[in-house]
């Protein structure tokens, strides 16, 4: 019976120590909110580069004229989202659309976002 008390108190101490470690290592609300909305870098629009990136990465789902295919039409994307909203969608993905943050540099995504934001 005495041994069981020692084992239980040891398990309780280990659980408390684990809770303290988690308390200091898990991200807070502000950090989670920051991750959920990526910050768009400042870039100057380069339309030719943006078109090349879109041709290489987007037309298989959005169509060669951005008319929509598997994915929605992007021909008037600027009427629905601003550049930062588009940047967030392309970076994180949404619905069936995958994230492109590991495939494109943030500056490339920002350039495409600026380009698409002009399509109204």
From TrEMBL:
Cytochrome c domain sequence ranges: 45-120
Annotated coiled-coil segments of the chain: none
Record Pfam families: Cytochrome_CBB3
Domain of life of the native organism: Bacteria
Keyword annotations of the record: Electron transport, Heme, Iron, Metal-binding, Transport
PANTHER family from the UniProt entry: CYTOCHROME C-550, CYTOCHROME C-553-LIKE
Name of protein: Cytochrome c-551
């Amino acid at each position: 019976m005495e041994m069981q008390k020692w084992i239980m108190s040891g398990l309780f101490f280990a659980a408390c120590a684990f809770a303290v470690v988690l308390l200091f290592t898990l991200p807070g609300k502000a950090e989670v909110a920051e991750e959920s909305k990526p910050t768009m870098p400042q870039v100057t629009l380069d339309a030719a580069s943006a078109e090349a990136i879109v041709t290489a990465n987007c037309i298989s789902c959005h169509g060669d004229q951005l008319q929509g295919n598997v994915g929605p039409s992007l021909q008037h994307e600027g009427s629905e989202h601003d550049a930062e909203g588009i940047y967030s969608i392309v970076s994180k993905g949404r619905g069936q659309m995958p994230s492109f943050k590991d495939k494109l540099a943030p500056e490339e995504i920002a350039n495409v976002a600026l380009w698409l934001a002009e399509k109204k």
